[in-house]
Amino acid sequence: xxxxxxxxxxxxxxxxxxxxxxxxxxxxxxxxxxxxxxxxxxxxxxxxxxxxxxxxxxxxxxxxxxxxxxxxxxxxxxxxxxxxxxxxxxxxxxxxxxxxxxxxxxxxxxxxxxxxxxxxxxxxxxxxxxxxxxxxxxxxxxxxxxxxxxxxxxxxxxxxxxxxxxxxxxxxxxxxxxxxxxxxxxxxxxxxxxxxxxxxxxxxxxxxxxxxxxxxxxxxxxxxxxxxxxxxxxxxxxxxxxxxxxxxxxxxxxxxxxxxxxxxxxxxxxxxxxxxxxxxxxxxxxxxxxxxxxxxxxxxxxxxxxxxxxxxxxxxxxxxxxxxxxxxxxxxxxxxxxxxxxxxxxxxxxxxxxxxxxxxxxxxxxxxxxxxxxxxxxxxxxxxxx
Length: 386
Known about the structure:
Elements: H1 7-24, H2 28-34, H3 39-48, H4 68-77, H5 84-94, H6 98-103, H7 106-118, E1 123-126, E2 142-146, E3 149-160, E4 167-173, E5 183-189, E6 195-200, E7 211-222, E8 226-227, H8 233-269, E9 271-272, E10 275-276, H9 281-309, H10 315-340, H11 350-358, H12 368-378
Helix pairs in contact: 1-4, 4-8, 5-8, 8-9, 8-10, 9-10, 10-11, 10-12
């Protein structure tokens, strides 16, 4: 046990660690080559472990446990041999379903949250658009009310799980009122007429995770599929972003630790000029610096988790964690690749994959520049926006 985790947390950790070792890592090379992983098969196995709803209500199949279990899940998934599969799972557990779990109607949660927790449905969250990435307020997708239905038209881009999802948590404009008060969150089943996967996107990294451009052409969903009140979608999404950014930073710590450990092992085995590379003091000191930075980020993540559980607004602190995680991941990737020399540059070795996968963290879930803007605002360095 540790200061933050009890015996039950650690038992759960061992369960997820075994899962990663047996059900993910042996297949990573294949999934990376195929540019997708078998989401429904893998999620069903995770559902059987009660890993997809650890902090969700028991009434919908969740375990009803504290959020530290989500942290444990993210930490252990970070030890996977790729970034794509952990990201896809995190989208399902901490990005597409939190608002549904907290603010969805009982009927909506029975229809979508419960099967998502069981691993029978895959969830995706659709916020970004071709002309609106980190600028959420600029989205154009519209959901026009027609009686007891919304008619949805528009496009969503960069959607993780987009080709495999059974339902989408969609942010769309539901009124002409200016600003963020015109947006609502809607659950859209992907078998609804008018929904299309326009294109599967080929990315620099995270190859095992499917990412798509989605189209909504007169897609009709019941008004009852709305999460919360009309016009509250932007606020609910901003709340969800905090968990998304926290889980991203948590998972990044484990991935960085794994790469530094791999680099240390390589430098012990690699002989240059008649001695192991690790005997070079510069390499020792540089890896020691990275480990120090990683540990500092871990403690910031744990601080954010404590604040979250205590009911505090974590926007500033989690933005700092997200910013630090993205920048540190790039530093770890670049430094460790350099220490691997030519072996770090070939695809047959995991270093190149990490170098590619890690780059997304400074973009997805809010770019570094967005994080800096949030931190500056909360620190009183810029004018607060209304």
